[in-house]
Write a structure and sequence with these properties.
Largest sheet: 9 strands, mixed
CATH superfamily: Gcn5-related N-acetyltransferase (GNAT)
Radius of gyration: 16 Å
Structural class: alpha+beta
Shape: globular
Strand order of the largest sheet: 7-8-6-5-4-3-2-1-9
Length: 187
């Protein structure tokens, strides 16, 4: 099973150690996102998650570091849900540090994660969600080949305002037809 996938600008790889993981999580949790709001990620919980599996375990929540190819700099994280026997779908999520946003790193990291998931697991579909107000996230999902499939009405509340959460999906056949797959380096 390959765990390092490299594109033109980014690579996804296992986190080097618990400190790198916690640093990334603390950035994600420490700065309230203007679309999702604040997350609560206690250090002890984050470290326990890392120590159990290194965050590369098919049957548990997993995450990989997103790294710039040109500088080797940490850009964020790409995560996915647990795989279980008989389960044919999972979810993905992306966090890109503020200074690296709007440069295509998130969309490419999603493409790399889709390669990792579809090449290593018997999945038929991968889903993702974001708030209906998060235009950049929706565009990133579309750029990596995902299609809008619906919305959960007023499913998220931030600053006292209820917003819809929109759902996107990519099927294995759509991923297989994606041109970017041939450009990805594995290993």
């Amino acid at each position: 099973m390959h765990t390092i996938y490299t594109g033109e600008r980014t690579r996804i790889r296992p986190f080097r150690d618990a400190d790198e993981w916690h640093y990334t999580v603390s950035l994600d949790c420490g700065v309230p996102n203007e679309h999702w709001g604040p997350w609560h990620c206690p250090r002890a919980h984050a470290l326990k998650e890392f120590e159990e599996t290194g965050l590369v375990a098919p049957d548990k929540y997993s995450a990989m570091a997103i790294e710039r190819v040109d500088t080797g700099e940490l850009v964020g994280l790409e995560e996915h849900g647990a795989m279980h026997p008989g389960k044919t779908s999972t979810w993905i999520g992306t966090f890109v540090m503020k200074e690296h946003r709007k440069q295509g790193f998130g969309a490419e990291a999603k493409q790399l994660m889709l390669c990792y998931l579809f090449e290593n697991f018997p999945l038929s579909t991968v889903i993702a969600d974001t708030t209906a107000t998060h235009r950049d996230a929706k565009r990133g999902l579309e750029l990596c080949g995902m299609h809008f499939i619906g919305a959960r009405r007023k499913a998220h509340c931030y600053h006292g305002k209820y917003v819809d959460v929109v759902l996107y999906q990519i099927m294995r056949a759509d991923w297989e037809a994606g041109e970017y797959r041939s450009k990805v380096q594995r290993g």
